[in-house]
Structure formats: structure tokens, C-alpha cells
Amino acid sequence: MPKNIIMIGPTGVGKTEIARRLAKLTNSPFLKVEASKFTEVGYVGRDVESIVRDLVEIAIDMVREEKMEEVEDKAELAAEDRLIDLLLPPTPTAATAAAATHEPGSNVIQLPVAGAADDSEEKPGDREHRTREKLRQQFREGKLDERTVELDVRDRNQPSFEVISNQGSEEMDINLKDMLPGLFGQRTKKRKMKVAEAFDYLVQEEESRLIDMDQVNRLAVERVEDSGIVFLDEIDKIAGREGGHGPDVSREGVQRDILPIVEGTTVSTKYGMVSTDHILFIAAGAFHVSKPSDLIPELQGRFPIRVELNSLTVNDFIRILTEPKSSLVKQSTALLETEGLKLEFTKEAIAEMAQFAFRVNETTENIGARRLHTILERVLDEISFQAPDLFKSPRAEITEEGVVGEVPVSASLTSEPQMPSPPLPVIERQTATGVEKVIVVDPEYVRQQVASIVKDQDLSRYIL
User: Fold this and answer.
1) How would residue 42 be classed by pLDDT, with cut points 50, 70 and 90?
2) Is the pLDDT of residue 399 over 80?
3) Mean pLDDT score of the chain, rounded to an integer?
4) Centroid of chain to Cα 436
5) Which of 26, 191, 406, 417 could staple 394 via S-S, CB 3.0–4.6 A?
């Protein structure tokens, strides 16, 4: 039996990321759903059984991707051959060649040259083979990418039907293609496209031919039943019991609907029956207002492992800003580099930003690592707007007399008086290619941008 987990901790501490990484480590189908999306039976809303159906669809995509990687080389070779068939003009057959050499009405019959009989038999095939290999080489080198070919593609404009029913869309599993095969024939149409685009299309076609979808569906259902992981977020939003009666959707009713899925049941999907006995459920919530004990006892009993996540500290913030492969600091640096702008953060500046994020989380709402987004945006506010103009080459000012001289782009933006912006921390460095300008964000610049807002409690509530 799966040991289901309930995680308790404020927003932004990484509850979802923990579950996602667990799934990645075990190569398991993973689905994240918000418990607040569901409503009890009788109300318009999502049905809890759709959790299992969505998980099966995710598993099918996973298994299909794995199978595609296995047949990728075969599919590319087959697509290459089909593309060369399209590019090569049709070769004349022996019959058409004979008709060309001996036209009706002419008395001249061309006799084969002595000693050339063997050569004439081999030459057409050899010539065609050489031409194909030459074309293949040119295609692989990318020389044919701009040429246009005509392909037979599937016509996707199929007739559509609208069925009105009181059941949810997940319940209705009507495969009209099987019911009316004549109406939904695989119609094709001619379409012209570039060679590179045609190759991608042909690879997809060949992959779909090489993959057995029945086997994919079967493996996907097995994987869901054996190692599926469902992350039930915002479980605290459906905790608690209502004292009064009324037409509102009952939170306790949603809990009772989720209960059979968690404890183990069989759900009908279009790929067959799926058992949820061994699916791992990870529930998570901040539990600011309610407590795990506010859940109905039956649901509490299905989550034996309870984990309390601590709020993030300053050191955690520093690690989040520096260690991940795509940390916020690296993202900002790469983004400004697209403008030809070099940006660097000192270790002290990163520590200062982490300190500010921690302080604002303590004084206002604790939103965890998401606070780093707002702090970093505030620090880079002036740099994002001013720096691209500093690094552009100056342009000539054109007047009635002609080109007078060169002025910086930023100087000619507007003639209105503007509020003085704080100077950017630009330094010049000597490199092998010459002098380059680098913006170095230091703790002094971070304090200059953020400190005044952090001090003003009312302002920080709106801006940070």
C-alpha cells in the first residue's frame, strides 16, 4: 500500500517542487491538481475521477516519447528516403525508353552497340543510385532546405458534432471515427512546403507508423497503477466543516468524493479500467486558517506521513539565488545579455537581497521564495530601463543643415525635464577585444533601490 504524504508549510517553500522531483527521480507519471477545483456531485465542476483520467493521458505521453526515442533513427532514415523520392524526377522505364528510341512511323531502328550491352543494363540503376546519394549528401548538409516539395498531408478538417448531455465531458467516451468509418476516411490533400518542414512532417508520420499505440496504452495504464503520483495542492482550502445549511458547495462533500480515489478504487477510462490502489497521493497546504485535524477523520487516516516544512532562512535564499542551474540571478544576467549588456552580482549583493527578502517576509505576508522575484525586479528596475541606451552606439543628429554631429540615443529621447535617476554602477574592463562596460550590482546599489520601500510598511505591502 502506498504511504501517502501530507505536507504542511507556507507558500513558496517548495512543496510542489519536492513532489515533482520525486516523480522525476522514479520516472513516474505525475499530476498536480488543486483540490479547490473539485465540487461535490450535483454541482457544476470537475469530477474527482478526472484526476485518474488525466494521469493516464500524461503516462501515455511519457511512454510515447520513450518509444519515439527508440525508433527515432529508423524514422529519420525512412523519412529521408521518402523525401529523396519526392525530390528525384521519375526515371524513364525500359518501355518508355524503347518507345523513345523506336518511334512509330520511322523506318530507322537503333541497334545496340556491340560490347555495350552489359554497360547499358547497369548504367541506369547505377546513375540513379549515385544521384540519390548525392541528393542525400546535399540534404544532410542543409543545401536543399529552401527547395519546395509537394506532399500529401492528412486533411484535419473533420466534421464536428456537439453532443449535449448532463454528464461531464470525461464521462462521454464516444469514438465517432469507429462508429462511422466511411464518414471519417483518411482524406489527404496536396500541400507545398519547404524541404526542412517536409522532413519534420515525414519523420512524425514514420514514427507514428513504427509505434504500436495499443502497446503504449497498455504500458501507460500499468505505469499509472504501479508508480503514479498525484499531488493534491491546496488541501487546506477544503478542510473544515460548515455549521449552517445552504446552497453553497460543501467542502466536506469534496473530501468525501476524494476519499474513495485515495483509499483505492477502480476508475473507468477510455483505455480500460484503472485501479488507484497503488497510486501515491501527496497532499499539501499552508494550513494558515485550518488544521490537518479539520479534515474528515477518514481522509486524515489515509495520509499516515505528515511533514512540516520550515520557513526559508536567509541562507536558503542565498542558495536559491545562486545554486540552481536556472536561478533568478542567472536568468536576469542572460536576459540582459540579449541587449549586449554585461551584468554581474557580487556575493555581498546577493546576501543583501536575501536579507531584504527574509525581512519583508517576516514583517508582511510570508510568501517564501517568491519574494525573491519582487526584490530582484525592484533592484533591476532602473538597469532594465536605462542600461540598453547606455550600451547602444551613438547616432547622428539630423537637422535642416544636415548631419551636425553625434549624440547619445538616450539624450534625444525627450526634451521634458525628468527626475534624476540614480547613477548605474558601471565599470570598464580591459579585455582581449578591447574595453567593455560591465554593470556590477553591489550591496550599496541594492540598498539604494530597496531599503526605502522596506522601511515604509504601507508602501512595501503594495510594491514588494
Assistant:
1) low
2) no
3) 79
4) 36
5) 406
State what percent of residues in the chain have pLDDT above 90: 38
The amino acid at residue 324 is P
Among 259, 263, 275, residue whose Cα is nearest residue 227: 275
Phi, psi of 290 (to 5 degrees): -95, 175
3-class SS of residue 439: strand
Give the pLDDT mean for 417-421: 51
pLDDT at 113: 47
Which residues, 6+ apart, have CB-to-CB distance to 191 below 8 Å?
Answer: 150, 151, 152, 153
Angle between helices 50-87 and 117-140 (to 10 degrees): 130
CA atoms within 13 A on the CB side of 387: 24
Dihedral angle over CA of 173, 178, 184, 186, nearest 10: 120
The answer, yes or no, to whether residue 92 has pLDDT greater than 70, is: no
- Cell numbers for 235, please give them: 488541501
Of 325, 395, 100, 66, the C-alpha closest to 211 is 66
Q: What is the distance, to the nearest Å, from the Cα of residue 177 to the centroid of all Cα atoms in its chain?
A: 30
Using CB atoms within 10 Å of the CB of residue 375, give its burial: 0 to 12 exposed, 13 to 18 middle, 19+ buried: buried
Please identify which residue in the block is written with the cell numbers 532514415.
77
pLDDT attached to residue 215: 93
Give CA–CA dist 409/302, Å, rounded: 65
Percent of the chain with pLDDT over 70: 75
Residues 224/56, Cβ–Cβ less than 8 Å: yes
DSSP 8-state assignment for residue 162: -
